[in-house]
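request received
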Amino acid sequence: MSRHHNPESLTHLMSHLLKMHRHTIDQIIHPYDVYPGQPPLLLALSLEDGLSHSELAARIHNKRATLSVMVDRMEKTGLVERRPDENDQRVTRVYLTEKGKEVTVHVKEAIKTADEMIFSHFLPEEVLLFRRLLLQMKDNLRPKEE
Amino acid sequence: MSRHHNPESLTHLMSHLLKMHRHTIDQIIHPYDVYPGQPPLLLALSLEDGLSHSELAARIHNKRATLSVMVDRMEKTGLVERRPDENDQRVTRVYLTEKGKEVTVHVKEAIKTADEMIFSHFLPEEVLLFRRLLLQMKDNLRPKEE
DNA sequence: AAATATTAATTAGCCGACTAACTAAAAGGA
DNA sequence: TCCTTTTAGTTAGTCGGCTAATTAATATTT
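response:
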């Protein structure tokens, strides 16, 4: 209780928490051919299907190169499919397959389970407060032009 | 402001924050031959040098296999060295080299810079509150035997 | 003492993430 | 129009992380 009072350990603790959270989800969804990095991508497509690679990469905070390889794998496991954009031949759009849509239902349940676990015993106002602090941090890290 | 009210996005936001935090540190330490995953290992050794692989893996919340490969690389870049344990021939202990110790000074500064950035505009009691919430989450995720 | 189980570390193989370098297509300028 | 710049996506190479399987040494059991 008296050790680790420096802010560094807070980020270390955060990364540990996220690792456990991710692991909880992965345990549930692994049987559905979904790998640990894929839930954000599936959720993004379930909100708006047919995003381009660039849009999708931005939504899930990944680089295009990372996304390209992920989509390769997910195409192989039959979760998504690529279709060329009609107007711009540079653009490839990514769509959920039927299997992808079915699997996303289970992914959402898994996330719900993990979130209820990690935020259990939290008062609603504590969750709101936590959100406010995270948004403050995000703002702090935003590069300022001056 | 009105979108993303579900807890899921909180973990997504956390992972985004950590990614930026890690990137901030990496920008500073990259010239010192330190790769983005290595700061926690260096800090652990600067607190207690000569840990075994198993101990070190536990401290930084990694698996032994992950650690083994990291130590390989860090031995190549001259940051750490392996020495066998005297009493137990199964055990290998990891020590900071002189270069490793020097570099760790810069790593600590980089972490300090990144932490001051991410926690700027935070009141001391907000940091404490944030810590309390994270510890609550950690406790929530601890597997209970019952 | 000998057989068995456990522990420490490594290796192989995979997924996730990045940067840098590349190709192709579209947009903009002279 | 032609040249240049920008944008979209892929590929290659590397680091970080995992699980499963392997090897070696120590502990346990019988």
